Model the fold of this input.
Amino acid sequence: MEVKDPTPERLAAFSDGVIAVIITIMVLELKPPHDASFAALRELWPTFLSYAISYVLVGVVWVNHHHLLRYVERARPSIIWTNLLFLFFVSLIPFLTAFLAENRLNSFTTALYALEFVLITISFHFLQGIAVSDFGDDPKLRAMARTIKRRNRWALVLYTFAVPAAYIHPYFAFALIFGPTLFYFVPEKVEAAANRTGA
Done:
């Protein structure tokens, strides 16, 4: 009986399900005010702001994770466990979002929120490293991997600076958190990376 390597389709489906649940949990944290007035709604601005930021960040995480898994040919144990570690850190976003809103974006909760993205970036970096081992000697895929690695390093530096920046001013930390996220809005394309490196 031939034993086939596990395919990444179930890995992607499981990951998509987890991220969908994460977004659902964040939505459930949006509690409507008891008073039917604009003033009561305005009091919830920290909740709406933290939810909106987290929604965008989770969306960016999903887009790039989905893009990376397109190039994975085998769901080896190493990539399965690294993916689970990555999803663990992503799954903390609803809790930290609620913590942030409950404490009205104070310095401590903002620093924790920034630290969360440090851990997400590190775990994604490891996940990408394992996925790259399936690229073989394909120069275009290798060029794409190098570009993503540089992007990850820059994001990690800015997220790390956002942790102490939260104690200077939370909004400054949010700028450092959201800034590198703009790098990831459009995942790196194979052709674009190859053209830049001449591969």
